[in-house]
Amino acid sequence: MIDETGIDGTDGRESKVLIRLVGSFGVERDGLRETVGGRAGTLLKLLAVERGHTLPTDRVVDVLWHDCPPKRPAENVATLVSRLRRTLGPEAVTGGRRGYRLGRPPAVSVDLDEAAALTAEAEGRLAVNEAAAAVAAATRAIELLDDGVILKGDCDAPWAAAARGEAAGLLRRALHAAATGALRNAEPERARRAAESAVAADPFDEAAHRLLMRAHAEAGEPARALLAYERLRDVLAAELGTDPAAETRAVHLAILREQPAGPPAAERDSALPGREEEMTMISRAWAAATTGRTGVLLIVGEAGIGKSRLAAETVRIARATGGITLEAQCQEIERSLFLQPFADALTPPVTRLTESVLLDMMGDAAQALAELIPEAALRQGRYGSAGQVAGRRSTYEAVAAFLRALGARKPVLLVLEDLHLAGKETVELVHYLARRVSGARLLVVVTARSAENTAALEALGHAAVRLELGPLPARSVARLAARSGQGRWADDVFRRTRGHPLYVVELLRGLAAGEHGVPAGLSAAVLARVHRTGSLVERLLRAASVFRGTFEPALAGELLGLPPQVAAELCERALRVGLLVVTGSGYEFANEVTRESLYAATPVPTQLVYRRRAADLLGHRDNRPVLNGRSHHPELR
């Protein structure tokens, strides 16, 4: 779906035609308003109301001309269809002389369909107890539906009755979902506003009254809750001669007894087991952003810990709840390019805008944005030399102004992955957005490895909300194992991975394929990660892989002839990037997968050298014999 900018709410691509039935009738093509009036406009309204069905030409003639059809009605309708196709594109209307129908998405979209999708999304989120995401989706649906009136000026037309009922039903459902989600999210005032709107729209809506009663009770105002019940009872008695339903009376009785007035929250089957708390934080941040509370989240953790998966789930939530998503990946090779990740993220929506729309959105700040994104529709000659580069602060302000203007139309999610690889200016601009932008419908989510570019990330962490990802708990690994049909291996997988998400998933895939070692793809990823620490650290870790459990740095160093202080420093480097963990007075590998991968990648002759040397050292230390050059020492493989 698109808004006034012509930007699709998912990935910034153009949508062909948007038809607005809510409020006053409107039509847009590629983000620009089109004037479609007269009988051609009435025909388009009728097709939009009856979308999904082919309308016989006789039905169209009856609506357009009533009892006074022209001499050749089928030809006249065909002429109107041709006019619509010239104005809106050949896919806007399909069919022929026997009947016509509105074009299908994505060629043509209707605002009521977007509202319906958002309402269904809100109800689905409630079903799995994702209250904040449900509120975000319902709020966007309520915005689209406005007061539930459609086709102002034509609302009394009989052919519009179905659309009127559809809009009213959607608004009721969206208000219920918003109130329910707000109650679960401990926002009674927000729940009260939604419930009051539902009651105002339909005084006989008992579900809305129950929500209103619960909202008052949760806000610590039981007297107001009881008064709401009395009003409902009076209305039902006077108008229908009946009493409130048993469910409503039960809520009333619970409030009188000062008991919880609502049902328990639904059980949740999370899409990301073990990340429920993090997803709750992200959902709440997105829900807050949809109401104008700007937020910046910094998701940090070691490689493969699940940062990208969490960011992808955030994108899914934002798209499903009516937001615009902008995404970019930071690349180390492009670190010297000025704000390249921001340019990548903003180029799709900016280049979809005409010059007049861009200037209307941003005013004087548009020129600074055009310096960052040369593909923008501005004609540089009108605003100064094409070689004139905007100052850094001006560019920061221009990016902020664009995101704010975009957010005025739809909530915006900006995701920048691998911020540790970005240049200084990119990190500065994220910090600028965190500190200087408020009141915009904007959530910025950035991911970064916790052990890299630490100074910049630490500075950003003081301005942003920091989400530190750790390993999954055993119960989450068990759930993932059960989902994959490998439940019997759950304990073994947890022991070998210590809950590292990537390793868990890959081991389970390997087990499903009958492979009980470390899968080749996972082993390659582990070795690549080790390789990035440098050749000396890699050599030390390969040597240390002959030990089971804890090893001392000095002992591992002796396998390579390294001084103890050098071995200790190399172990500290591995510790900082999460390859080792401290255990008492020594180190252990962070998980068995890492150790197994290193050992398996070491040539067998080299393994034997390390094993024999380690056995000799351990034997002398513990006065244990070495038999045939091979050790039975419990600390060795």
How do you describe this structure in short?
With 637 residues, the chain is of the alpha/beta class.
Number of domains: 4
Secondary-structure arrangement, i.e. CATH architecture of the largest domain = 3-Layer(aba) Sandwich
- Write down the CATH class of the largest domain: Alpha Beta
Given the C-alpha coordinates, what overall shape results? globular
List the strand order in the largest sheet.
9-10-11-8-12
- What is the overall pLDDT average? 85
Strand content: 5-15%
Report the structural category: alpha/beta
> What is the name of the CATH superfamily of the largest domain?
P-loop containing nucleotide triphosphate hydrolases
Measure the end-to-end span: 59 Å
Folded structure, characterized:
By secondary structure, this protein is an alpha/beta fold. The chain folds into four domains: 1-177, Winged helix-like DNA-binding domain superfamily/Winged helix DNA-binding domain (Arc Repressor Mutant, subunit A, Orthogonal Bundle), CATH 1.10.10.10; 186-269, Serine Threonine Protein Phosphatase 5, Tetratricopeptide repeat (Alpha Horseshoe), CATH 1.25.40.10; 277-468, P-loop containing nucleotide triphosphate hydrolases (Rossmann fold), CATH 3.40.50.300; 518-622, Arc Repressor Mutant, subunit A (Orthogonal Bundle), CATH 1.10.10. The protein is built from 27 helices and 14 strands. The protein is globular, with a radius of gyration of 31 Å. The model is unreliable at 1-6, 8-15, 380-389 and 622-634 (pLDDT under 50).
